[in-house]
Specification:
Layout: E1 12-18, E2 27-33, H1 51-64, E3 67-73, H2 75-81, H3 83-96, E4 104-108, E5 120-123, H4 131-154, H5 160-163, H6 169-178
Parallel strand pairs: 1-4, 4-5
Antiparallel strand pairs: 1-2, 2-3
Length: 199
């Protein structure tokens, strides 16, 4: 059973990101403030939910949330500032888009950076403990999946529609065969040693 709130503040935002371990595509974060009487029994950490369930939950979350937002940060930024900093920046940007600005932030994971003096707490596996983080995880995942489905049309040989940019065997083989695209994260180890690219 997910908890509703961590702090004593009325306006508490949960935030989470998706796509951190991917070889291609953005890291996508979302932030959500839920109303007091919010109830959604199906809601859980997005990784525990089927794609179909996430698609059902997203419009319900968006309709009932006091405020929600999401942010994509592109590979060029990830390569420049590293994936941890990019994940934090995407979460911060999402929080800054919320209206009202939250009085407290709960973050999935163990790393965050202070944002405009708003108090915050990092919660390991927060997406399976608190509703607002679980809701943010569903939004981040579904908006990122939409993005990957769209860029799949541009480069179908990588099958991003299926692997969403994660380092599957098929994705790595496509990189070895076709090289990289503007959507690949060049700072990541795109191929294991035995599959070196010959450029």
């Amino acid at each position: 059973m997910l908890n509703f709130r961590f702090s004593n503040f009325l306006s508490e935002s949960g935030t989470d990101e998706a796509g951190r371990g991917c070889l291609a595509g953005p890291v996508t974060a979302a932030a959500v403030i839920l109303p007091e009487n919010f109830s959604l029994p199906l809601l859980n950490d997005s990784k525990q939910l089927s794609e179909k369930t996430r698609e059902i939950l997203r419009p319900i979350i968006e309709e009932q949330a006091i405020s929600f937002s999401y942010t994509h940060l592109e590979p060029i930024i990830i390569d420049k500032i590293n994936i941890l900093n990019a994940s934090i920046q995407a979460m911060q940007q999402s929080i800054m888009k919320l209206n009202p600005t939250p009085e407290y932030i709960i973050v999935d994971g163990n790393r965050f950076k202070p944002l405009n003096d708003i108090p915050y707490t990092c919660i390991i596996k927060g997406d399976s403990k608190f509703m607002s983080i679980a809701a943010a995880s569903v939004l981040a995942k579904t908006y990122r999946d939409d993005y990957m489905n769209k860029i799949h049309e541009e480069f179908p040989m990588y099958n991003w529609k299926k692997n969403k940019g994660y380092p599957t065997k098929e994705h790595r083989e496509a990189i070895a065969k076709y090289g990289t695209t503007k959507y690949h994260r060049m700072s990541f180890r795109l191929l294991p040693e035995q599959l070196k690219l010959d450029f």
